[in-house]
From TrEMBL:
UniProt-recorded name of the protein: Molybdenum cofactor guanylyltransferase
Species this chain originates from: Dokdonella fugitiva
InterPro entries xrefs: MobA-like_NTP_Trfase, Molybde_CF_guanTrfase, Nucleotide-diphossugar_trans
Locations listed in the record: Cytoplasm
EC identifiers of the protein: 2.7.7.77
Amino acid sequence: MAPAITAAILAGGAGTRLGGRDKGLEPLAGIPLVEHVVAALRGVDAMLIVANRNHDAYARYARTVADADGERHGPLAGIAAACVACDTPWLLTVPVDCPDPPSDLAERLLREALAHAASAVVAHDGAMRQPLFALYRRELAGSAASAAASAQGVWAWQDAIGVRELDFADRGQQFHNLNTPEDFIAHAARPRSIG
């Protein structure tokens, strides 16, 4: 039996390109964006949402946690908070602004981690690393918190801990994220990806 995984949806951003609105709660095809992400996640045993506002709204979908000090210090602070809250050996992170992540994301990242005794594995879409789509051992919480406190970015921290990259070029289009009102409109109008 595979080790258990908790999925953490990173929803702590400021939504600056949406006029400050909470991106995860913005409607996509009439449904809050976070709901699309929750429905797409497969192969996980528990779920939580890292958010710094609107906790009651997010609590409808999963247990919510905030950055350690409740401020927005970037996604690494969210990853650190999720690692602390994680009750399973592994933590999968995905951003709230990607409505259609690969359905086999958790399975493939875990298989790579176990095959290479890696403590962290991150998706690569065929063109670039996708640093927020990653799997971590929960023991990395202290390292993530220290790096976030020193204003280190996710990419640099991943390099420092020796993250492995896993090729998802076959699903590259599924890492597309939504940032502006126009992105929401365009995504709602296109055919849904499967897989």
